[in-house]
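Figure 2 data, in text form.
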Amino acid sequence: MLKKREIEALDGKLNNISFETLENTIFIKNSTIRIPSMVIESSALDITTEGSHTFNNYIDYKFSFRFRELKSVKDESEFGEVVDDGTGVRVWVRMFGPLDNPTIEWDKQSKKEQAKENRQEAKNEAFSILKTEFGFKKNDTTVKQYIPKTQQHEEIRMQFGDEDEPDPVEQKKKKESKLLNNIREKTQKLKNNQQNEVEFEVE
């Protein structure tokens, strides 16, 4: 699934890794070190992990990462770089057994649990949209107001015809400005005429 040059680039990144600040709370009980779920951000890729490690060096770790981050070359389209929206294929792996000879397999259980969470989030978002737009469950405090996510987007403007032709938008603005000026002039003339009129009465 990866190109040869991408594998070579990944090997190079793994030989020299730099990490962001790591922060977590580690629990030690019954000769077992337990690591709650955490995100490890590195120069190679970001990994979400959790697991346990016994004093006898028996491990049970779970990892997940986005497949897209394995690629060294950024995805681009004819309009420029494709911005990562946080979605895409996620890889789930479990490593367990003795540390010197662990078993590595696909973590199907964690994948199912994450899919369940994603469905619940989608359901909550749908309720939020219905509440915001149509007043659905307006008295339910558990349903929050929907706030749309702002994302970067490309705006393409196209103009047809010769370059010397005037811009239709600018032309419309000039017409509107000319019309306003005419109205002002006529209004001012009308005021001046009213001031210059001589008032008289005929008996």
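Caption note: The mean pLDDT is 76.
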